[in-house]
Amino acid sequence: MLETSMADSGLGDADDDDFDEIVEAYDSQLPEHRYLDRELSWLSFNQRVLELAEDPTLPTLERANFLAIFASNLDEFFMVRVAGLKRRIMTGLAVPTNVGRAPVEVLADISTEAHRLQLRHAEAWQSLVRPDLAAAGIEVVSWDGLDAAARESLYDYFHAQVFPVLMPLAVDPAHPFPYISGLSLNLAVRIRNARTGRQEFARLKVPSMLPRFVKLPGDDGPTAKYLPLEELISNHLDDLFPGMEVLDHHAFRLTRNEDVVIEEDETENLIQALEAELLRRRFGPPIRLEITDDMDEVTLDLLLKELDITEQEVYRLPGPLDLRGLFDISRIDRPDLHYPPHVPTTAVAFQPGDNNERPDFFSAIRKGDVLVHHPYESFATSVQAFLEQAAKDPHVLAIKQTLYRTSGDSPIVQALIDAAEAGKQVLALVEIKARFDEAANIVWARKLEKAGVHVVYGLVGLKTHCKLALVIREENGVLRSYSHVGTGNYNPKTSRIYEDFGLFTVDAEVGRDLTRLFNELSGYAIEKKFKRLLVAPLHLRKGLLRLIDKERRNAQAGKRAHIRIKVNSLVDEQIIDALYRASQAGVKVDIWVRGICSIKPGVTGMSENITVRSILGRYLEHSRIFLFHGDGSPQAFIGSADMMHRNLDRRVEALVRVVAEPHVAALHALFDLAMSEGTSSWWLGPDGEWTRHARGEDGKPLIDMQDKTMAGVQRRRRARAVR
After folding, report:
1. Rounded to an integer, what distance in angstroms lies between the CA atom of residue 565 and that of residue 62?
2. Domain 348-531, CATH homologous superfamily name and number
3. Which residues are catalytic?
4. Which residue ranges does the record assign to the PLD phosphodiesterase domain (predicted)?
5. SS3 of 624, please?
6. Window from 28-32, 622-626, 711-715 with minimum mean pLDDT
7. Highest mean pLDDT among 165-179, 231-245, 431-445, 561-575
8. Is 253 exposed, middle or buried (0-12, 13-18, 19+ CB in 10 A)?
9. Which residues of 287-311 are buried (b: 16+ CB within 10 A; e: fewer)?
10. Which one of 552, 577, 582, 608 is most buried, counting C-beta atoms within 10 A?
11. What is the rounded CA–CA span in Å between residue 173 and residue 168?
12. How confident is the model over 278-302, as pLDDT tens digits?
C-alpha cells in the first residue's frame, strides 16, 4: 500500500473528508458535457503528427519519418485502445467513457475518423512526400515504370534473395484458410487450375525480415530508386504457381487485438502467466483489415468470412499498405534531407575539469541539486555515467533502481550487473508488464538475476512506472544517499529523441523517501511519510488537487495565482474539474500537452482562463512538469505521472519537488517559451479542434522551441568554457 502524508508533503490544509465534500459540491455546479472524448483526442494527436509530414518546409526525409510514425501510432491505437473497447463491449464489462455516449457510438466515431485519417495519410504519401523525395533523387517506383534492364536485374535479385523464403499457402478442401498474423503484409492471390479450370485462392505473406523497399541494383550514391517488396513479389507470381493461371492479386493487412490482460490475483507466477498471455496475444481476434482499393468483391468477401470481420472494420486504401516501412527510407544518409544535427552537451555540473579529468559525479551532486534536460543535455554523460561510476566506486554499498523500458544490451543493465559482480547490493525493480516490451523485459530480467542482482517485479495489480535510482555510498563512516528522479525511462536509445528531465540530489529527505518507497516496492513495508515525493496510486492525485485548490483560494482572496502543467495526456476528470474550478475563480492555467487532452479550454463561465498548447517536432515531448505560483512561494514538481486513470490509480508513479530557485526558474522559462504566441505550436479550441500556428502575421516562421532550447544549452556550455 502506497501512501503519502499530505502534512509531511506540506500539502495538507483540511481534513480529507471535508476536502472531498468540497470537491463534490463544486463538481455538481459544472456543466454535464465538459470533457472531450479521449479516443478522438488521441486521433487528433496523430493528425498533428500527420500535419508535420504534410509540411513542405520540413526536411523531406523527416516528413517520411513522420508518415511512418503516424502509421506505427495508429497500429498501436487499434491493437490496444480499439481492441480494449471491443473486448469490454463483447464481454459485457463496463466501458468507461467521459462523454456520456454509448460505447458502440464511440467505436463508430473512431471508425469514421480513422478512415478519414488513413485516407489523408495515404494521400500525403502519394501526392506530397513521394514526389518531393523523387525531386531529391530518392524515387519509390512502381513495376510499370521500370525499363527492361531494371526488371531483369530485379528478377535476379528476386530469385537469389526473396524466392527461397516465400511460402505460398493454398486454400482448398485439403488446406484450410491459414492463420494471418497481426500487422503482417499479405498478398491474396486468385489462380485458375489450367487442368481443371477451377479457381483457387492462395495467401502469400510478404516476409518482414526483408527490406520493405528494395533498392534497385546499380543505384549508388545520393540518388536511388526503390521498389515496394510486395510489387516485386506480385510481378513474379508465375514462378510461385507454375502451371497455374494467375487471375488477380491484392495486398491486405490485418490488425489483431494485442492487449495483454493478466489477473494477477489469481496467478502464482507472474512471469509464467505473462509468457502464456504473450503467446495468446499472437492469436487475438481481428479488429482492422486494410486492403488496397482495387481489391475485387470476391476476394474481399472471402476475407470477411474467413477472418470474421465487419465492413466497418475494413479500410480500403491506395497502395502501398503498411507505411511503417518508410522508417527505412527515412534513415537514408542524405544530410541535406534531414534536420540539421543537434549535438547534446554535457550538463554544466558534470563537465570535465580544467585538466579534462573525468568528472566526479558524487562531488558534483554534493555541491547542489543538478537538473538535467535530455536530449539537449546528454543522457550518456549524466545518468549513464553516474550509474557506471557508482558500479565501480568501492565506497558505494548499494544501488536500487526501477526499470520500465530499456534494452538488454543497455549500459544501464550492464552497470547493475557490474555492481552486483563487484559485491554490491543491487536491487532492480523490473516492470515486465511494460506494453510491447514484455518479452524483452523477461529476457534481461533473467540476465540480471543470473548476475546476482535482486530482481523484483513490483506490486500485484500495479505497474511500476516511476523513474528512480538510489545509490548508497559510505563517506567518512556515514552513509549518504544519492538520488535520481526522472520523467523518462533509463533507456540510452530513446533518450536521444525523447525530451525528459532528471533531478540528481544528495538531499537526505529525498534519500529517505526513495529508501522507504523501494522498501515498499520490494517488501511488505507500509510507508506513509514522504517529504519531497508525491506517490501514486493513493495520494498523488489528491496532492495535486490540493495544490490546484490552493491556487483557487488564493485567486478568490485577490492574490496572484497561476498553474502550469506539462503532460503527455490529460484525461482524469477530477484533475480537469479542479482546473475548471480554478479557472472560474480567476486562476490563469497553462496546459502543455503532447497527446490526449479531454479538457475544453476557452468556454465562457467555465474555462476562459485555461490555455492549451501542443508542441511536436524532432523530439518527442515526454517530460511531466507541475508548477504552482503559491502566492510567491512556488511549488514545482517533475516526475513520471500523466493525468490519466491508469497513472493515478493503477500505477506506482512519483513526482519529486524541485526546490532550487534556478531550477524552478528554468522550468518556468521553458513554459514561457512553449506558451508564447511567437512559438510554433498547436492551439486547442473549446470544440476540440487543434489549429496549427507555425507562421506569424508577416508570414515568417515562428520560433521552433526545440531548436531554441538546444541553442540555449549550447550557449551556456560555451559561456562556461570561456570562464
Report:
1. 29
2. Endonuclease Chain A (3.30.870.10)
3. 465
4. 617-647
5. strand
6. 28-32
7. 561-575
8. buried
9. bbbbbbeebeeebbeebbebbebee
10. 582
11. 16
12. 555 556 789 999 999 999 999 999 9
Q: How would residue 569 be classed by pLDDT, with cut points 50, 70 and 90? A: very high
CB 532 within 8 A of CB 656: yes
Give ranges for CATH 3.30.870.10 in the chain.
Answer: 25-30+535-722, 348-531
Residues annotated within a binding site for Mg(2+): 405, 435
What's the length of the chain?
723
Of 329, 415, 334, the C-alpha closest to 141 is: 329
The number of beta carbons lying within 10 Å of the beta carbon of residue 364 is: 19
Q: Top-level CATH class of 58-337? A: alpha beta
CATH code 3.30.1840.10 region(s) in the chain? 58-337
Neighbours of 423 (CB within 10 A): 10
The pLDDT of 75-104, averaged and rounded, is 76
List the grid coordinates of 308: 470474421
**Residue closest to 57 by CA, chosen among 707, 713, 714:** 707
- Known binding-site residue numbers: 73, 405, 435, 498, 594, 622
Binding residues for ATP: 73, 498, 594, 622
* Residues 643-699 pLDDT 10s: 999 899 989 999 999 999 999 999 999 999 999 999 999 999 999 999 999 999 898
DSSP assignment of 472-487 equals EEEETTEEEEEEEEES
CB 110 within 8 A of CB 315: no
Count of helix runs (H) and strand runs (E) in the chain: 22, 28
- Helix, strand, coil abundance in the chain, percent, nearest 5: 40, 25, 35
Contact status, residue 575 vs residue 548, Cβ threshold 8 Å: yes
